[in-house]
Amino acid sequence: MRRNRNVKIVATLGPASNDYETILALFRAGADVFRLNMSHGSHDEIEARHALVRRIEEETGRPIAILADLQGPKLRLGSFASGAAELEEGDRFRLDLDPAPGDNHRVSLPHPEVFAALEPGASLLVDDGKLRLKVHRCGADFAECNVIVGGVVSDRKGVNVPDVVLPLKALSEKDRTDLEFACSLGVDWIALSFVQRAGDVEEARVLVAGRAAMLAKIEKPAALKEFDAILAAADGVMVARGDLGVEMPVQAVPPIQKRLVRRARAAGKPVIVATQMLESMIASPMPTRAEVSDVATAIYEGADAIMLSAESAAGSYPVEAVRTMHNVAISVESDPTWREIIVASRHIEHTSVADGIVAAAREIAETTDIKAICCFTESGSTPGKVARERPQVPIIALSPRIETLRRLCLTWGTHCVATGPIDRFKSAVVSAAQAAREFGFAEARDQIVVTAGVPFNVPGTTNILRVAPCDERLIYRAEAD
Question: Staple partner for 122: which of 109, 163, 213, 341, CB 3.0–4.6 Å?
Fold first, then answer.
């Protein structure tokens, strides 16, 4: 099975996609990566979903990536005596550490670290920004606020603090437990929430200990200020537009998305655009035209992947949502303007032999009749570098390591193929030619580009490129000559 598109689709699993038949249907409709949201569901439920994906992977013979998304620390109000309170614009409202039930004058915010960081003038956003408070006076255990935007607030609503860097670590105790559980299952990517600095990623990487790749979710204003360092520390990033749109003006999110996608592309690291992409399909079999345009925009920008959240996890039309994304991708990538935009937005600094090899592979493929670029890889770095070039021919990643192939399922344009151990370049070329024919990328009379590293099975040694026929008889004849 091959996808006739380059952008990858991430589908979140949940109550609406909890059984073998539905997950298989999601895969067949176009899902390349399945997201396990650690904020919802017990470990037993998550383990069962993981097992179903691995069963489908074995049955279909195609590597599938699994991404575990950690919840991150959540700031929430305490409870109200009557379950809710109405705050009016201009009111004074107090947040404090007193656990007593609240009213329309005060409520508990059981997070002393928030009060330690607050300063007069700082904003507090309640219930995804529906209510807005501004700090008038604060201390170690309280904050007196002016109500800027009022409304009804109820028990345990979330609180965002966009103006300050909070002295909170990205990993709560729940996250540490969930991380270890997810790694023990064998997930391929760990998505880290509440990232504010590169050190958050580095701390999590120590705990992961090489068992999964690290994806940093960019959802805090502080992360935008430290983005280059976070990108350098992570293996990939997610533009998490939901919380970004709460903590920043909504009109700021589109240009932020474009900047982050371009910088991740230039670094050769996968970037996911996420949140509310087909939100109306939670309840409707048809998306809005604006949602389709939103998905298309991310594809025109060259994002590696686009993601469904509640649409596939809890909606009434999970398979239709994936199929819609797939069809939009096919349509966009068939548009000549898409290729023009992708080429115009390519910005790469070549600083190594491997960079030069993959740049040459892309140039050869685009100036001659080459059907695919085939990369033998141990760590996955070479296909990532080729994908950074955004070539106009397919990328076939070949590796004896299933873990590497699964992680590459998140990378733009890659078709992942498992091979046996390779110790000679001739064997690598023959395997590449067979894979190109088997999966319909080329015929025997066609040519492919093959990249590899000699000696084999050593990560980071890409140093050889060959233009080869897809007929192995010609390969052996050339070797004999």
Answer: 163
Write the CB contacts of 11 (distance below 8 Å, at least 6 apart in sequence): 17, 26, 31, 33, 34, 35, 307, 308, 312, 318, 321, 322
Distance CA(189)–CA(201), nearest Å, equals: 13
Tokens of 173: 């105790």
Specify the residue for token string 């140039």.
363
Phi-psi region of 31 (alpha: psi -120 to 50; beta: other; left: phi over 0): beta
CATH superfamily of 353-480: Pyruvate kinase, C-terminal domain (3.40.1380.20)
**Do the beta carbons of residue 229 and residue 107 sit within 8 Å?**
no
In the structure encoding, which two tokens stand for residue 193, read together? 């929430």
Question: By the 8 A CB rule, do 232 and 198 touch?
Answer: yes
CA 480 – CA 475 distance, rounded (Å): 9
Q: 84-160 in CATH: which number?
A: 2.40.33.10
Active site residues: 35, 76, 217, 275
With contact defined as beta carbons under 8 Å apart, do 308 and 277 qualify? Answer: yes
Which class does domain 8-72+169-334 fall in? alpha beta
Exposure on the CB side of residue 156, measured as CA atoms within 13 A: 0
pLDDT digits (tens, 9 = 90+) for 117-148: 999 999 999 998 899 999 999 999 999 999 99
Q: Which two tokens stand for residue 286?
A: 């048809």
Q: Which residue has the tokens 């790694």?
A: 183
